[in-house]
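Weekly structure sync, notes
Attendees: PL (lead), two postdocs, one rotation student
Agenda item 3: pending single-chain targets
PL asked that the sequence for the first pending target be pasted directly into the notes so everyone works from the same version. It is reproduced below exactly as submitted, 170 residues in total.
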Amino acid sequence: MPSKQPITLGIDPGTAILGYGVIAGSQQPELVDVGVLETSNDLPMPERLLRLHAGLQELFGHFRPDALAIEQLFFARNVTTAIAVGQARGVALLAAAQAGVPVSEYSPSEVKHAVVGYGKADKQQIQEMVRLLLNLRAAPQPDDAADALAVALCHVQTIPFASRVAGGGD
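Predicted structure, written out during the meeting:
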């Protein structure tokens, strides 16, 4: 009986739009699902976080991922946005812990480097490489969903290398 392909859930955190991407396999990853969880700006933040948590729990229950790959918090100028993204990250980390799923975190430049080969790649370059790596007809939309797939791809491309390094290499 063939072994089960590992399932990776990638998350691009945000409170208004949280992108997610689910891929199977590591050698030649395949798209399983991609999308976004959205909340309305009209809702109080606790309610928005509760809705994100419920949506994430549903994703964990449905796909039963072997790993969660999530983008690390990065902010340059807008502290308010960084705080909101941090809250969404916290909800995602909580949902992963509740599901017993290990978490790997990657900086934006690590994701870009792993997917495009260049740590300062732009959005269009990332989207095109996601499309090519997953053999898609078009880049996933919106950007948050494509970014989540890029994080998942970063994970499956990084983990074999990290395992070799941790195990002493070849």
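Discussion points:
- Residues 163-170 have pLDDT under 50 and may be disordered.
- The first strand starts at residue 7 and ends at 12.
Action: rotation student to compare against the earlier draft before next sync.
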